[in-house]
Amino acid sequence: MGGAAVRGGASGAGGAAAGGVDERVVLAGIPLRNAVLTASGTFGYGTELAPFLDLRELGGFVAKSLTLEPRHGNPPPRIAEAPAGMLNAISIENVGVKAFLEEKLPALPEGVVVLASAFGTEPGLYAELAARVSSHPRVAGIEINASCPHVKAGGIEFGQDPRLLAELVATVRRATARPLLVKLSPNVTRIADMARVCEAEGADGVTLINAVQAMEVDVERRRPVLSNILGGLSGPAIRPIALRMVWQVAQAVSIPICGVGGIGSAEDAVKFLLCGATAVQVGTQNYLDPTAAVGIARASRTTPAGTAFSASPI
Ligand SMILES: Cc1cc2nc3c(=O)[nH]c(=O)nc-3n(C[C@H](O)[C@H](O)[C@H](O)COP(=O)(O)O)c2cc1C
Prior knowledge:
The chain is an alpha/beta fold. It has helices at residues 97-104, 123-134, 156-160, 162-175, 191-200, 239-252, 266-274, 285-288, 292-299, 305-309; strands at residues 6-7, 25-27, 30-32, 36-38, 60-66, 79-82, 85-88, 114-118, 139-145, 180-183, 205-208, 212-214, 217-218, 223-224, 231-234, 257-260, 279-282. α5 packs across α6 (239-252). The protein binds flavin mononucleotide.
């Protein structure tokens, strides 16, 4: 199976707990103290939670997707409950790259591994953003968001068309030497083809999956629940889809995979590793329990869950 997991031996990324498991991994060239990250858009800029949690217990943290200029999202209602998950159509509301680099990043405790997430409406804008964040020493890597399911221009267009995706990855690749992951959309017929495109254009890894495009209807109002009509479904409802796609991609490419989608426990995380992921991200569960990701990260260094964290893929 592909996946190119490089477990252990990551200098400077923490160490094995006494008598426990060496939980270190290297993801796409980024040394992580464990395999558990938080997913973009579900953990703010980290600063909101830093007073309550030791973010250094996480393998890493993927910041909210950034655009070059600050961006307002869609008007409310833009989140809604769904069976076993949630719908969102936030639409990349963010502070913009300048405020991220000058205010948000310096406010994070030293030692937190930060990945910046880049978003844009055309490849050149993604590339400019990638170049800007690459100049900051605190940015360990970049995740290209090629998959937002509810933005009218950009995002999902790139993640659904192999030619556009190739152009996007190649353009960003030329703009940065930092480790580069591409976040894939599940809203495609053949996810493995999209991962192959990323590998061919020089991506160091792929993250999957983003939210599944979805909608819900308010029968009394006879209207869609979300103002944007379409949103992204996330949470436990999508975990089997995410596992299937991680497994398919692991058969197709040799670059590492960061698995995301419906992870709520250490056991869920292990499922992704068994399907071929090198690391995982916790998303929607952060809204239910902001300590969830740190709890899963702790479990990765204790047995028996920790032992499972270092198990070979199926
Ligand atoms: C409210 C919300 C905002 C999100 N914002 C982003 C974002 O800015 N960039 C991104 O790449 N993914 C974003 N996502 C997608 C998540 O990072 C993740 O890929 C997806 O929710 C599936 O994981 P989960 O089921 O664990 O939440 C967002 C998800 C939610 C629920």
